[in-house]
Structures
1.
Amino acid sequence: MKESSRQLQKQRTRDMLLHTAYLYFSEHGIRNPRMSDIAQAAGVSHGTVFLHFKTQEELIAEVVGTCCGKIARRTHELAGECGSLEEMLKAHLDGIREYEAFYTRLVVESRMLPQSARDAWISVQSAVSLHLSPFLEKAVAEAGLSGTPASMLFHVWMGLIHYYLANSDLFAPDGKVVERYGDAWISTFLQLLRQRPEKLS
């Protein structure tokens, strides 16, 4: 019984450290903070952090993996309720909105992260692509854009979002980029898809 209680407390401490690191990374960046910063923010000793995570890279990978898993699961949940491309685009933005500060850090810092963290980041993009692609393929067919790969339209959509998030200090200093521009992104993207091919050439 004592061992079970000890293990439960250990798991609670680990979860608390992950949440603290998530909040700290969201505000200060993922690569810059030191393990001592996380310890101070969590109100524990430096050694406590190292007891649960041997290296800074291990902590980063765990936080990114946990958050990306939540984003992927939330995207999957929201996608199940979508019947149109517009609804799917809104669902995608809603999924990002819940984790916007941390997601923005991933957009900016992803290429500097440990490989395991980058793999988690890529998995989120794959999850979004999985749900968005069928809607894009249907939109391409309906618009008569047979020469336009749905995958390219997916990259256009993601590029639009990521450009704004990467420059959030210019577009929304309060940090709420999705709230401020989400509707405009969707309407503009849908308008491009509805253009007749001859008007796009």
Note: The chain has a mean pLDDT of 90.
2.
Amino acid sequence: GYQGYTAFVECVKPLISLVILGAGNDAIPLTKIAAVLGWNITVVDGRPSYASAERFPLANKIIIAKSEQVLNNLEINEWTAFVLMTHNYNYEIAFLKELLPLQTPYIGILGPRKKLERMLDELETNGATITQRNMETIHGPVGLDIGSETSEEIALSIIAEIKAVFSARKGHSLKYKTDAIHSA
């Protein structure tokens, strides 16, 4: 005979993978907050003394590589976010050149807007194609405007922006939201 079943269906979104380019001290709080959220964390740097398990115990993966070799060591999908914070202009521009054609959903670049504009101008001058989609996914200066001063606060603003982007939200205060907070 026919038997009825009761099922509970839960949609589980894939984990966000955070790739941090740059293993300076300001990357440490970024890994800590991402780890609290259960994200998959990769730290990348060309300097072995910086990119170490001692400095980044919460990273799932540490890659020591030249900028043009980094992508060969990564699995990238629609849940991968990149944050460029090496404080090394040449390393970042070389990496960005490799990254742009992949049309990844989020690229955050630490530093002033002028630096980003200079990078993009330089890339275009040297023959790179920068699409409208690239411009939508590049976030520079990186992070939400929450008045961050310390590296921990900056990390919080970056993580919040990444979460907002992957959730297709603007990152405004909930007090101004007119409909339900959680979608049905």
Note: The radius of gyration is 18 Å.
3.
Amino acid sequence: MANTIADKLTYLSGTKDAIKQAIIGKGVDVTDTDTFRSYADKITSIQTGGGGTVNIPDGTRFANSTFTTISDSIIPYLEQQTDLSRIFENCNSLITVPLFTTSNVVNMGSMFYGCSSLQTVPSFDTSKCTNMGFIFSNCSSLQTIPLFNTANATDMRYMFNYCSKLTTVPQFDTNNVVNMNSMFEGCKSLQTVPLFDTANVTSMSRILYNCSSLQTVPQFDTSKTTNMGSM
């Protein structure tokens, strides 16, 4: 690292952003207005599995696993769940995922968060899913996305952030979505985005932040949006 003041400020900014992403990845919100000093309080609110009465939900049981695909032996368990949030979080070796029944799942938040080797995903039944926040966050090898049924989704924040190989995304049904914060942040290969229905969206800060290949932006309905910071 160089020793100029500018270099030090750049390094500090990058460090702050890395810490922010780590805190967000653990399910704790960090906004653009939060100070660096406040991050300490947010870190202490992260739930962990050590001691005390903190309960880790069953959905995290495959997190940090090293398998490259999902074994047939665990699919019956997966198909019994209504909450698959964080189930494969940080499975960095996961490359492919088979199609299994998800018709009753309502929560897929952070389902594949940090699966940096994941290249494709099947067309899951997401018709009942309301929470898709962080589902593919930091899936840096993901190249294509199916047209999921998102008619009931209300939360799409950080859904694809730092999916750096995505070039296009389908026109999801976003009629009920209220939060699109950082939805495509860091998607540096993304060239176009569809005209999503954003009539009910109240927050879309950083939605296209660091999308350095983006050439055009549709005329989104921002009539109810109150937060467009760093959009």
Note: The longest helix spans residues 5-25.
